Amino acid sequence: MTAKALLKSAAAPAVQPVPAPAVAPEPAPTTEERLATPVGTTLERYIMRKQAEFPYATGELSQLLRDIALAGKIVNREVNRAGLSRITGAMGGDNVQGEAQQKLDVEANIRFIRALTNGGECCAILSEEDEGIIQTGNQHGKYVVAIDPLDGSSNIDVNISIGTIFSIYRRVSRPGGPARAEDFLQGGRAQVAAGYILYGSSTMLVYTTGHGVTGFTYENSLGEFFLSHPDIRIPERGPVFSVNEGNWFDYPEFVRSFLTTCKERRLTGRYVGSLVADYHRNLFTGGIYLYPPTAAKPVGKLRLLYECYPLALLIEQAGGVAVTGADVVLDVPPTADLHQRAPLFIGSAELVRELQAAAL
């Protein structure tokens, strides 16, 4: 190419890309459109829609669930402001279980007792924090509630998620008089509802009435629980095992063998020492939670009536399994001890059944 041609080529203007046609921005929604957008289904509305599924659907059980949700809102407030209101830390004594009682344990216990008493449908309460049955004075109430008002409360000082666990029974004693021990000692299969409230990065109420498991998330600005997880199902097999490995040498051989297998398969160990938090994570991701018997606690540590039974009913409704070793939790008969303890292995069906087979 000649020098003249090169100069002509260099002087030629570069080809400019054709600009894309301008896209008009979406108009902002009008006030009417924003107001017409649904905010979701509240717990109250959901309960009304589902009331026909409740046994003896006359409204009492619906009211009980509302009372528990109300107390949960109050406890959520106290948990969130615990550091500012100086209600963290231990009370300086032990509860009836021989465990260090936390200030928030006492606060939560009072809140749930008041809410269930004022609601009028609960005739008696069995709480982890009290040795005997708490009579509410509602002697014509048709239901009793067994509850752990604040499980894992020792973790509040380090800002780890904690929770409430509850179980509801229809009383078998004659209405018009005080509730009796047999109202609480009906066995796990007799529960008409069970659930938990998780106080974490968000507060969730998860419960079952025997027709699947439903989750609600608390919206602080509106003061309402909204339906967020309409049909919770636990995966058949999960990647997590949750156990306090510090007690390894005190565990039965079948537990150590199972945990060794979990590690060989490269399952992930996740354990924070707050039952509701560990359970909640595994419910959504899949996995197994283990609280085995030890030399110091040969019958286990967790309470059958208000920890093992309600979580077992939930996990079965979500497609999982709960056992005490060889036995299914919901089939374990209660004794006369209202604070009866039991081992607990709970979570994804394949993992728990594998452990159960090792225990046989």
Automatic annotation (TrEMBL):
InterPro entries named among the record's database cross-references: FBPase_C_dom (IPR044015), FBPase_class-1 (IPR000146), FBPase_N (IPR033391), FBPtase (IPR028343), Fructose_bisphosphatase_AS (IPR020548)
UniProt keyword Cytoplasm present: yes
One of the Pfam families matching this protein, by short name: FBPase
Domain Fructose-1-6-bisphosphatase class I N-terminal: 42-230
Cofactor: Mg(2+)
Location within or outside the cell: Cytoplasm
Biased composition regions of type Pro residues, renumbered to the chain: 16-28
Domain spans labelled Fructose-1-6-bisphosphatase class 1 C-terminal: 234-357
Residues involved in substrate binding: 151-154, 244, 271, 289-291, 301
Complex and partners: Homotetramer.
Name this polypeptide is given: Fructose-1,6-bisphosphatase class 1
Organism of derivation: Hymenobacter saemangeumensis
